[in-house]
Fold:
Amino acid sequence: MKKRVILGLSLVILLIVSLSFVSAQNETETEGWEKAYDCLKDLVEQRGYNSLTPEEQAFSLLALGYDSSQQSSLKSALASSKDPNNACWPAGSCKLKETSLALFAYEHIGENTDDIESWLMNQTIAPRELIWYLQIDSPETVEVICNLSYRDTSRKITIKTDKKLSGSPGSCFRTAYNGYWLEVDDDCYNETFTISCDQSFVTALIYKRRTGSTYYVSTLTNTAPASGTTQEQVKTSCFKQGTSCDYEGSLWATLSLTKKGKAIKEFMPYLIALAPENSKNLPSSFLYMMTNYDEYLRELTALQRSDGYWQAVSTSDKFYDTALAISALSDTSSEAVDAAKDYLLEVIRPPSSSGCWQNSIRDTAFILYAAAQKPASSSGGTTKSYCEDFNHYCVAALECNESDLLPNFDCTSIGDVCCAAPGEPQGETCSDKQGIICGSDQSCTGTSVQSRDSNYCCLQGSCQDIVTECEEQNYVCKSTCSDDEEEKLYDCGSGETCCAIISTGGKSYWWIWLLVLLVILVALAIIFREKLKEQYLKLKTKMKKGKGGPSAPTRPGGMPPRPGMPPTRRPGMQMRRPQMRRPATNQAIRRIGNR
Structure:
């Protein structure tokens, strides 16, 4: 009986402490972000809008665009730092990254960016860092005769029974990979190659980094029956700085064009193949946003440090990298994001900081945009309709054909585009990803990602019932609150209203608290029953002595004790609040093969 009472008492106290902790945590988190916003405004105003670099102006516009006054000042400052002769930044030395960030910031507040997009597209070249191959294969077990046509000429190619190619493919090709593939000459990029065979066949383009050993198969493989045709074209580009490709600039330029709903497939081979030698730029964050491939999700979460932040290399800025990673993971139900936010808020708690991260305008603005973004204030610019409200699809950029892109519609995710393709978007099912589908009223204990058949595909975890914000506060979610209830602003997550019993008037539930108090008193009486019995016997003995024995002791001044005064007792021990510890970040993500 004693153990049951103690257990019940412990549960009641733990519930009260937990609710207080959650409420205090939410308030502290909100206060932390607001403090950072105030600090950023102060830094920007102290430095002066026109004294900021274009990078600082762009990130500040992304973070403070919700404030109409700040938006106006920052927009004017960013416009003044543009090159007077070109739609690029900064003036006098146009750079890819700064120009792309300006495009990103203007898109955020709804400004027209046609001239910036044109300038960026004029900076594209074919990357010489890649080697491309044409593969022609057939499932047949006999020799297959094919015609390879380009530049108004046709060449005969034979697929032998061992699948090697023979024949004369012409000036655009030379045999490679032990005779199984045809290497495409650099001067023949953008040429259209038409293939036709006398048996069923398949064609594909394959590429690799010149100095690397990993081969990548392009996203599209073409098949045709006997006498059918396929067409292949090496369409590959990067963004140049000077006369050569600039990797970081290409990352930001491609992401900015993705946000505009533009086709980006031609830029992806260069970004994917060159990623290993550009780890300092945290390429997995960009690639996950633009492809939605699980391999980049796995790679990115694995790079998170134990404290919750990201730092690509020892010399890179961990706050900038953390903001970049949060941007990529913001649409996933990932504990990695929660851990990162906790770390960021802990760093700026007094007396560690005045509210900004390293007193850096760039880092603070980028973190606020990524982790606590506020919608931009309308400034008379272009307002886009949400894509899925019109029965279209928000999908990763590589999952939509160029002809199906709808750039005038918006998607919430940075790397998603609006796609008009009929039917379900392309991609793997949750089963293909080796995940499980969580219901709309459930959450994933691992990482929740989108799949072709669900928005709640749970990887490396299980599905658990969601406890709403309202229920966490010990209130109830209902379609309509009754007369003796009042509405609360806590979220129910399902369109329902959060209801709480009115504390004054209507029904009174004071008896619940009285019951809790009685349970506590009974529990204490049981726990300390021997002590109480001892005190009772002592008191009884004293009362007997007072009737016929020695005279009772007096109070100071010779006054006898006042009848009815309780005996002095030792104060109870104060219960310490249990420390709440967040579970460790789940970084185990399923490994998949190269795409």
Notes: Residues 14-26, 544-595 have pLDDT under 50 and may be disordered. The CA atoms of residues 1 and 526 lie 9 Å apart. The two ends are 63 Å apart (CA to CA). Residues 469-501 form one domain.
